[in-house]
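Ticket #4471: structure output looks truncated?

Reporter: J.K.
Steps to reproduce: submitted the chain below (316 residues) through the standard prediction queue, then opened the result file.
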Amino acid sequence: MRAKNKNEKRPSDVKSNYSKLALGLFILLVFSLCTVSLLSFSVATKLTHPDRTIAKHHPSKKNLPTENIIFLSRKDKISLSGWIIKAKRDTNKWVILSHGYGGNRNIFGSKGPNFYKFLHDNGYNILTFDYRNSGVSDGKITTVGYHEENDLLGAIDYILTINADAEICLMGWSQGAAVSLLTASKHESVKLVVADSSFRNLQGFVNENLSQWSNLPNYPFTPAILFMIPIITGTNIADVSPIDAINNFNGPILLIHSINDTTIPAKNSKYIYEKYKEKKEITLILYDSDRHKDAYKQFPKQYKADILEFFNRYGF
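Returned output as attached by the reporter:
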C-alpha cells in the first residue's frame, strides 16, 4: 500500500483551485470591461458636450455696423444667435463664417473684428453665428457636422429672406470648415467655399486621432468611444464625410491648412485635394504654421491676400 503524502493534492483540490482562478479572471474581465465602458462613456459625453465659450470681442470695436440676429436651424428648429455685418454699399455677395468645435461666432477671438473689417471693407456682407450648443445659441449636444449642417442651412435660409438673389461663400475653420464642405451642394445660392483645417471624414479622423483628444490609449478606448457616440447623439458619424459630400458641389473650393497641424493633420486637406484636383476648381494652400487653424494669426497679410485672390479669380 502506498503511503499517503500530506502534500499531495486531491483531484477535488486541483479542481477547486482552477475554479477560483477562473472566477478571479472573470471578475478581472468584468471589472476591466466596466472600467473601459465607463471611461469611454465619460469621454464620449465630454466630446459631445464641449464647454461653451461666449463671444467677447464685438465688431463695433472696429466701427462695423452690426445687427444681432436670431434664426432657426432648418430641420429641428433650434434657435441660433449671430451677427450680420452689412457692406458699405448694397451687394448680394455674402460670406457666412463657421467657427470650430467648442468655438463661437467670434472666429479669431481678439483678432476677429480685424477679419470682419477686412471682409466688410472689400465689399462683402457677413453673417457669423454660434452653432448649436455653442456660444449663446440653443441646443444641448454637438455632433461635429451631422446636425450642424442644418444650422448652416438655416443661416442660408435666413439670408435669402432678406436678400433673395444672394450669392454666398461658405467659409469655415476646423469643424466649421467640414460643415461648409458638407453643406455646399445643398443650396444653389452657395457659389464657393473656403475651408480652413477640415477633416476629410469624421470616422477616419476619429479613428486616427481620438487618443490625442481623450488622452487614453488608442486600444481599447477608441473603438469603445466610437461605439458610445452614436448612442449618445443618435447619429452615424460615417455620414459626416466632407470628402464625399463635395462630389456634388460644382463651385470653386479653397482648402487651407497649417503644415504642422497636429489636431487635424494637413493630410486631411491633401486627401481632399488629390481626389478632386483633376475634376474640380479646387485649390490647396499650405501655410508654414505649427498650430491648428492658426494660419491667419501667424500670416494675416498673406492669408487675406490669398482669400481676395481666390474671390477675384472666380468673380466673387
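Triage note (M.O.): checked the attachment and the full C-alpha cell line is present. Residues 11-48 form the longest helix (38 residues).
Status: closed, working as intended.
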